[in-house]
Design a protein that fits this description.
Radius of gyration of chain A: 17 Å
Strand content of chain B: 15-25%
Order of helices and strands of chain B: EEEHHEEHEHHHEEHEH
Number of strands of chain A: 2
Number of domains of chain B: 2
Oligomer: heterodimer
Strand content of chain A: 5-15%
Shape of chain B: elongated
Helix content of chain A: 10-25%
Distance between the termini of chain A: 38 Å
Strand order of the largest sheet of chain A: 1-2
Largest sheet of chain A: 2 strands, antiparallel
Number of helices of chain B: 8
Structural class of chain B: alpha+beta
């Protein structure tokens, strides 16, 4: 049976900085976020997070990519 | 390029519908569900090449990373608008359906329990912000020890004033830290009153029915803090990113 809606239909816009801040070090970790190999075949690879080791670093990354109208 | 991998966004309940109009991690990719373990993973079939650049390659391309972050969040937020989700960490790539099915099968009971926990809830975070100059000015007015030291600095001869000034600076830093900590403790307690779980110090999983009270509570606190150099900013609602990690830390 479908659960009740957990979020408002139109949540407030999230800025890219907020999104990156939220994505860093969150979400279910997959086997320690490394490449897991079995018989030479990689099963899980988590690569993007390695780019964003800290919130400060992410904030620096965000600056050139922020678009008009992203909000605060 | 051939789609030879699966980018996985989140775990959903078995039988969940695909989120309508949700962005995909790469332009042109579509969404699909892979069911196993009594739940389903929201995925996009993608070529693994763009994800294999490594830190050096993507450090030079922050816009690419930012676009992927937007898409990852967009897909998860769309799914969360119609039911419970457990976000996977940003950048989760499986080499095909078989390893993803094995991953889901091995964790089915814990994933289903966590999905039940987050049903009808959203994640909220409070951030404590400080205007250092404003906070110092407020403390100057309200901290008796600081006021006393300021008076002594003004009245003392130059050498003594220098030493007293250093004492005053140390007292100011201690007072700032103490007041930030006190506010954080108070906010954590208020957040806990509305939450079903606390995956972080100032991050809470909040039932939808409590969200308005949480907002009202924070609005009152923000009004009370006006002009004091400290502020409390409520951010949300978010899909349960922090809760998913905390609940399945050892899965």
């Amino acid at each position: 049976m479908r659960e009740p809606l957990p979020l408002p239909p139109q949540p407030p816009p999230q800025s890219l900085a907020d999104v990156l801040d939220r994505l860093l070090d969150t979400g279910v970790v997959l086997d320690g976020q490394v490449v897991i190999s079995l018989a030479g075949v990689d099963l899980v690879h988590v690569g993007l997070r390695a780019l964003l080791a800290s919130v400060d670093r992410a904030a620096a990354l965000v600056q050139p990519a922020r678009l008009p109208g992203d909000g605060a | 390029m051939t789609a030879d991998a699966l980018y996985a966004y989140a775990v959903l309940p078995a039988g969940a519908a695909l989120p309508a109009g949700a962005p995909a991690i790469l332009p042109g990719a579509t969404h699909a569900l892979v069911e196993a373990g009594g739940c389903a993973a929201l995925v996009s079939a993608v070529p693994r090449g763009p994800f294999g650049a490594g830190p050096e390659g993507r450090m030079a391309d922050p816009e690419w990373v930012a676009d992927r972050a937007r898409a990852h969040h967009g897909a998860i937020a769309s799914a969360a608008a119609s039911g419970p989700v457990l976000p996977l960490s940003f950048g989760a790539l499986f080499s095909g359906p078989a390893p993803l099915i094995a991953w889901l099968d091995a964790r089915g009971p814990r994933l289903r329990a966590a999905l039940a926990d987050v049903a009808g809830c959203a994640e909220w975070t409070i951030r404590v912000e400080e205007d250092a100059a404003g906070h110092a000015a407020w403390l100057d007015q309200h901290d008796e020890a600081l006021r006393d030291l300021s008076r002594k600095v003004e009245a003392a001869p130059q050498g003594t004033a220098f030493l007293l000034g250093r004492s005053r600076a140390r007292r100011l830093e201690a007072a700032r830290a103490a007041r930030r900590a006190e506010l954080s403790r108070d906010l954590a307690a208020r957040l806990a009153a509305h939450a079903s779980a606390l995956p972080g110090e100032l991050t809470a999983l909040v039932p939808q029915g409590n969200a308005d009270r949480l907002r009202d509570d924070l609005a009152r606190i923000e009004r009370d803090l006006a002009g004091t150099g400290l502020a409390a900013r409520l951010a949300g609602p978010w899909p349960p990113y922090a809760y998913a990690r905390a609940a399945l830390r050892d899965a």
